[in-house]
Each structure stands twice: as C-alpha cells, then as structure tokens.
Design goal:
Elements (H helix, E strand, L loop, with lengths): L1 E2 L5 H8 L12 E6 L30 E4 L2 E4 H5 L9 H17 L14 E5 L5 H9 L4 E6 L13 E5 L13 E7 L10 H11 E10 L17 H12 L8 H12 L2 E9 L9 H20 L2 H7 L4 H15 L8
Parallel strand pairs: 2-9, 2-10, 5-6, 5-8, 6-7, 8-9
Antiparallel strand pairs: 1-10, 3-4
Helix pairs in contact: 3-8, 5-7, 6-10, 8-10
C-alpha cells in the first residue's frame, strides 16, 4: 500500500514541516497529499440543516441496508454502485483506526495549508466525521460542513459549528461558488466514479474561494515490498490486481497517481504533491515509521476484507471460500516483517 514522498530526505523534511512557509496567492490552491448500521432512524440521526445551503430533510432511502456475506452495506450505495464498502460497526472502527494513522503520519496536523482563521470548510466524504469534528473543535468560529452518502456513522455529539449532510459526491455540488476557505477530499477513490473525476475537481475549484485551498489524500492500493521480495505470485499482489480489476470501468483506483495533473487541469495553481510509503506492519528500523506501521497493522488486516468482500464476489464472481482464503494469505504476508510491505 502506498500513499502516492520520494525517498529524497529534503522533500521528506519539507513535508514534515507541512510547508508552513507557503504564501497564499489570489487563486485556489491545491495541496495534495498522496499518500453500521445501528438500526438508527431518521429522527435519531443529527442531520443538521442550513438554510444557506438549501438542505432538506433526510431521505430515509439512505438508511436502508442490505447484507452480503455477513457484512452490512447501504442499499442506495450498492444499487447505484456508489460505494461498495460495508457501513457496519466493524468498518466504523476501522475508519477510526485509519484516521489515527493519518494523524501520526501528519504529526497531528489536520490542515496543511497556512490558514489561520478559516470561515468555512468543506469535508467531502466525511465518513465517521472524525476529521470534520476535530477541525470544528479546533476552529470554533468556523462553519464546518461535511457530506457523505452514509448518515449512520456520524458522531453522537457534535459541536454547534459542525453540519453533517447526506449527499452523493457523484452529483454536482449544490454549494455556492467561492464559498469555502478549504475543501478536503480524503479516501474518495472508492466513491467517485471513473468518469466523474474531472468534473469532481472542477466542482471543488468552483466552491473554493479565490486564495482558498484544497487538500486531497488518497491511497494507491498496490502493495509493494521495500526489498523486492514480494512477487506477482504472492497473495498481496494478487489481491491488489483483483481489486483493481473488480473496479475497472467503475472506480479509478489509480486516481492517487493522477491527482496533481487532475488538479492542474481543473484550474488549481501551486499544486504540491507527496508520495508517502505506508508500512503494513512495524517492519521499519526507523522508530517513527515502525510506530506508524504498528498503528496501521490493524487497519490493513481489516481493510483486506472490507474492500474486497463485495467486488470480489459480486463483480468478479469469485466464490466466497476462495475470497476468504486469498484474504487470509494476504493478511499473513502484510504482517510479515521480512516482506517490508508498504
């Protein structure tokens, strides 16, 4: 697994200082970091509405679920091929783990751009709402809006300046032009349709104010070994190949490698990108990387099942027993320090 940083120590040091010396020009900027259903009703969900954004009451269609191989999925997401990942408590726990891994990678920095007093921030695909909630608490006078296709994983308690809304990012954004100081898009390759990416970028640009920023974080799920010992015959390599195959024509799982060009083509300026290896376990001799790998281990072990269970069985028609076997073998390899997998 690789978050699209060259190994150049100078670039790595620049990243760790989070480019705090960048100057904001008068056009939108892009900072790209490449790198449960609980049977709740519409009344239970704290869907905050905002008159300025023209939001409406929650459509209960978004609460309907379906089960595949003992995992809970959102019916709307499956029916529209919008998001093929479970939305159950197990997945919510994994997303919290992954958020903590990102906090370690970015040394607790939630916003990479030099923004002191943001007024409005948009989080695309807020998931559990962890990032949006922390940003809202950090910037109490800032209006933080998050949108996601799934309403069931949001925090039970939210600060007054946090507004979580239900929407499909494959639709055109309904927000006013030049509205946000910062727009974040994190881990959206599994949600944005392949033919939607160019317009998705233009939508982000359109709702970002002049001089505002966008930051994007994506994983490229192409497992590689630091020492070259992982071959195409290994289960992890087969998992990566089949995952990409299962999403062919539907989701662009290589989007992480194309984000800089996509942003520039949309009209962003001063685009910065970094590729960051993300260890699958604590194999690194560097203390910081080893700690990140240790924290990421549980995320990877769960991710190998979560991402694969529906597309492998329903789109590639692989028998569930074979899927479980591949996942079990891939988990062993991801957890083996000898492979030095990222």
């Amino acid at each position: 697994m690789e978050c699209l940083l060259p190994d150049d120590p100078v670039l790595r040091d620049l990243f760790r200082r989070v480019l705090s010396d960048l100057v904001v020009p008068n056009s939108p900027l892009g900072f790209i970091t490449i790198w449960q259903n609980r049977n709740r009703t519409a009344e239970d969900i704290k869907m905050t509405t905002h008159a300025e954004e023209g939001t409406a009451a929650l459509d209960t269609t978004f609460l309907e679920t379906t089960i595949y191989h003992n995992r809970v999925f959102q019916s709307y997401a499956i029916d529209n091929l919008a998001y093929l990942v479970p939305i159950d408590e197990e997945e919510e726990e994994r997303l919290h783990i992954m958020h903590n891994v990102f906090r370690m990678i970015f040394e607790g920095r939630l916003i990479f751009a030099p923004i002191d007093r943001p007024r409005r921030i948009l989080d695309l695909g807020h998931g559990t709402g962890s990032w949006a909630l922390e940003v809202a608490e950090l910037h109490g006078r800032c209006e933080v809006i998050g949108i996601d296709i799934c309403p069931t994983m949001q925090p039970q308690e939210m600060p007054a300046n946090l507004y979580l809304q239900v929407d499909d990012v494959n639709r055109r954004f309904s927000f006013n032009p030049h509205h946000f100081d910062l727009v974040q898009s994190r881990m959206m390759a599994g949600a944005v349709h392949t033919n939607r990416w160019a317009q998705y970028m233009r939508d982000m640009l359109r709702v970002t104010r002049p001089g505002g920023w966008c930051q994007m974080i994506e994983l490229y799920h192409n497992f590689q070994s630091d020492n070259g010992t992982l071959t195409p015959d290994h289960a992890l390599s087969q998992w990566s190949a089949r995952y990409i195959e299962s999403m062919e024509g539907l989701k662009d799982l290589r989007a992480a490698t194309r984000l800089p060009n996509l942003m520039r083509e949309a009209g962003f300026v001063d685009v910065e990108s970094r590729m960051i290896p993300l260890p699958t376990c604590a194999w690194s001799s560097e203390q910081r990387d080893s700690e990140i790998g240790a924290a990421n281990r549980e995320n990877v072990q769960r991710l190998l099942n979560t991402l694969a269970i529906f597309p492998f069985t329903e789109r590639l028609n692989i028998p569930i027993q074979d899927v479980h076997l591949l996942i079990a073998q891939a988990r062993l390899e991801a957890d083996n320090p000898a492979f030095k997998v990222s």
